[in-house]
Amino acid sequence: MKRKKTILLVDDDVDFLKANQLAITAAGFEVFVAANSREALQIAAQFLPDAAVLDVVLNEPDEGFALARKLRGDARTKNIRLIVLSSLNEINRQKGLAFEFSDRDRDDHWLPVDKILDKPIKPKKLIAILEELLEDGA
């Protein structure tokens, strides 16, 4: 029997975690949740998920970015596929600012992730991106 792919969701928004955990589980994944980077690091080291979805703004404005760097810097967790979700692009648009995070901002040091996505995101779209990302990395 084929092992279920595992996903770690990291967000301080309980409603986001619950809704997406249900949807991603229904799509056939096993899902772990964490509300902050400390919990996420513990879960990642213990369960070695296939992918992690990280909110940028947790307890600190850039905690998700710092978490991505910690995961990539640890030999045990460096191969976890990482997606960063951020509402910063929408906030900047509302303020009339042109600055926007995108996949062009990914690099090996400052933002070592596989995908950067805007939040809010519909669960169906997130699942499709997870499936594509994990198929590429299979």
Explain how this protein is built:
Helix 1 crosses helix 5 and helix 2 runs parallel beside helix 3. A five-stranded parallel sheet has the order 2-1-3-4-5, sandwiched between helices. The chain contains five helices and five strands; from the N terminus they run E-H-E-H-E-H-E-H-E-H. It has one domain: Rossmann fold. It has 138 residues and is of the alpha/beta class.
Shape: globular
Any idea of the CATH class?
A: Alpha Beta
Q: What would CATH call the homologous superfamily?
A: Response regulator
Count of extended strands: 5
Features:
alpha/beta, single chain, 18% strand, 138 residues, 41% helix, globular
Concise overview:
This protein has 138 residues and is an alpha/beta fold. The protein has helices spanning 14-26, 37-47, 63-73, 88-94, 123-136, and strands spanning 6-10, 30-34, 51-55, 81-86, 115-118.
Give the topology:
Elements: E1 6-10, H1 14-26, E2 30-34, H2 37-47, E3 51-55, H3 63-73, E4 81-86, H4 88-94, E5 115-118, H5 123-136
Helix pairs in contact: 1-5, 2-3
